[in-house]
Amino acid sequence: MIKFHPDTAVLKQFAAGELPDSISVIVASHVEMCPHCQKVVELENELLAKQAFDNGVNTESETYADIDTVETLLVDDEFASMIASITSDTAVTHSTPAKHSDNEITVNGQTVSLPRALNSIRLKEWSGIGKLSRSRLELDDDNLRASLLHIDKGGQVPTHTHKGFEITLLLQGSFKDEMGTYKEGDFVWLNGEHTHNPVSEEGCVCLTVSSDALHFTEGMSKLFNPIGKLIY
Question: Is residue 184's pLDDT more than 70?
Fold first, then answer.
């Protein structure tokens, strides 16, 4: 069961076509996986249609009367202040072609079904270090970066916070951190108020969108902070 969802305000922006492309893609992917959010978006589309034909009459309270509050992590709505400058990637220890069909991708011998929102988006080569691998989505979306992230069994991302925001959608597998356990379909939006150490015992594949570098907070990983913009 999906426990973590986009904030209702984000779903309304999605329905209205007001989100940046990268965020729209990750929200669309979650909506495809989540019956609850499908209902929210369908009702919002109905509301928008009514407002268009009724000269802007506000029927929002009636439309949302039967919708439960969406359980979610904190969402920072100030998009303008969250977008920061981003630089290019660093060299990696290994690189293999991203095998991509219309509805699935293969990484480390594992086949993963992809949301329909990704069907027309090209993927760059997989690259990574240790148990972490990443494939960039070829989206020209200002300073936002969208990626597929693979964490192999027993892998983890060192403890960090975020200079901007980071959105994660679990496509397959699971991971856990100090705030909870996340499974397929869970949608997690974090910002600089959150510090966590994601660990995946079984391995997982995520769709992510980031606006700025990670900031590592513990151990040897802090040595990477001066070049954080190069490795996020």
Answer: yes
pLDDT tens digits, 121-161: 999 988 888 888 899 999 989 889 999 999 999 998 878 78
Residue 109 corresponds to which amino acid? G
SS3 labels along 35-103:
HHHHHHHHHHHHHHHHHHHCCCCCCHHHHCCCCCCCCCCCCCCCHHHHCCCCCCCCCCCEEECCEECCC
Distance CA 143, CA 160 (A): 20
Which among 180, 145, 204 is positioned nearest to 22, based on CA atoms? 145
Could you give the residue ranges of the DSSP H alpha helices within the chain?
8-15, 21-33, 35-53, 60-63, 79-82, 228-231
